[in-house]
Known about the structure:
mainly alpha
Amino acid sequence: MHRLLMVAVVVIGVPVVAYLLLGRGHSAMSVDDVIKSSWATATPEWQARLSQDETQRVCSQYRNAPPPGLADAILAREKAAIKYPADGKLMGDWKRGEQLAQSGYGGRFTDYPPRTANGGNCYACHQMDGKELSFGTLGPSLREYGKIRKYGADDVKAVYERIYNPHATIPCANMPRMGTSGFLTIDQIKDLVAFVMSPESPVNK
């Protein structure tokens, strides 16, 4: 049970695990205790992941459906947390982005201490390249995402912001905050944006 909780927290996050346990009749205090006890032997860096910030706390408390006032506060707080590239360019190399999208490195205990860069693990939730035979369906399909939107600059910026901090668009989004958490670098996020939005990317073929 404890090992399963550890894996669940790494993969889908504390708020979602809390939501599942609360739905089974556990109190908020018991959920906290169960999750923390399952991480008793984790390194300090991993134990730090159990400390919720204000947005995570509110999302857990309201089971990802905060009332309007708190939802607006989340949007404002998370929007302010977004950092943009110093050079103003929001797209990098789509080929590197493709590699990042297919890599789930960094989310497992066996990836610590890190020996290579973290990956985005995008295929765990999204369909992207039409040639992919296996992909997740928690998130929407991104097939031809840039092509449908005519590769518009506003849409490029929206994709960057969604990857960097999805809570700035949807309060209590299921998607992880790749940039705000520091899990991915700004350059990595630019490469993922290019994979989604570049006309040359297989996503848009």
